[in-house]
Amino acid sequence: MTFNEGMQIDTSTTSSSGGGRGPGRGIAVGGGIGGLLIVVVALFLGVDPGTVLPQQPQMDTQGVEAPGFDLSQCRTGADANAIVQCRVVATGNSVDEVWEQLLPGYTRPSIRLFSGQVDTRCGPANSAVGPFYCPADQTAYFDTDFFDVLVDQFGSSGGPFAQEYVVAHEFGHHVQNLQGVLGRAQQDPEGPTGGGVRTELQADCYAGVWAHYAAITKQDGTDVPFLEPLSDRDISDALSAASSVGDDRIQEAATGRVNPESWTHGSSEQRQKWFTVGYQTGDPNKCDTFATNNLG
């Protein structure tokens, strides 16, 4: 999917940093599309996750974080089409605009671009966890290197809409937080019908809802749609990304077997199904994964 070059990127809710270490508090719920995938795979293999996580960068003696991405590069839709960090911010702008129209009382989350390591109010995290949302500070965190991992290690297609789907999924967790349902992920968090799977599938569905409206929602101030019309390739990219991080696919690749009782995000088929439900209907009410016995 291509952004309209006439749209203006709003970076006012976005910050960026390099690496850093420090104390945090709380628990990161509504984990990202990657959602501790490396840790999960390590546990499946009986490996200490600490041995497979990247080395955490150190701060200097003054405790100052390394400089992050220069957000002044993100000005227009043309920048979003050319620079992946700008694409994340512009996608967030688009998702905000859609949900402001769909959800009364919607408030914008913050976006934090980081590399290596980042401190959050849910605790410190590093790039291995993939994109994630922290409800304690209402911030979606993205290390854009994950998009390469999604292609190289998990076999997703590499189109821009696959990346935009990831952003919309994390914003879906913010919507859940505003609705007061995100905490259900911590209740019965594992299993094929557990709270974790239902929470993640609903976020996939909410990403689909955004996709339904993305090309027809106009930006306030410029009066141009954020995005060009979706192509079949765009939808294929989103479905590929959803499929590549299904619990069953990850388990099969890591251990050669599938154990639904340890699922936390849902199968590849389920993730594709619920994105499609949201995309085809554009109705958030159709995304109530907590009220159905048929998750797919």
From TrEMBL:
<dbReference type="GO" id="GO:0006508">
    <property type="term" value="P:proteolysis"/>
</dbReference>
<feature type="region of interest" description="Disordered">
    <location>
        <begin position="1"/>
        <end position="23"/>
    </location>
</feature>
<keyword id="KW-0645">Protease</keyword>
<keyword id="KW-0378">Hydrolase</keyword>
<dbReference type="GO" id="GO:0008237">
    <property type="term" value="F:metallopeptidase activity"/>
</dbReference>
<dbReference type="InterPro" id="IPR007343">
    <property type="entry name" value="Uncharacterised_pept_Zn_put"/>
</dbReference>
<keyword id="KW-0472">Membrane</keyword>
<feature type="transmembrane region" description="Helical">
    <location>
        <begin position="27"/>
        <end position="47"/>
    </location>
</feature>
<keyword id="KW-0482">Metalloprotease</keyword>
<keyword id="KW-0812">Transmembrane</keyword>
<keyword id="KW-1133">Transmembrane helix</keyword>
<protein>
    <submittedName>
        <fullName>YpfJ protein, zinc metalloprotease superfamily</fullName>
    </submittedName>
</protein>
<dbReference type="GO" id="GO:0016020">
    <property type="term" value="C:membrane"/>
</dbReference>
<feature type="compositionally biased region" description="Polar residues">
    <location>
        <begin position="1"/>
        <end position="16"/>
    </location>
</feature>
<dbReference type="Pfam" id="PF04228">
    <property type="entry name" value="Zn_peptidase"/>
</dbReference>
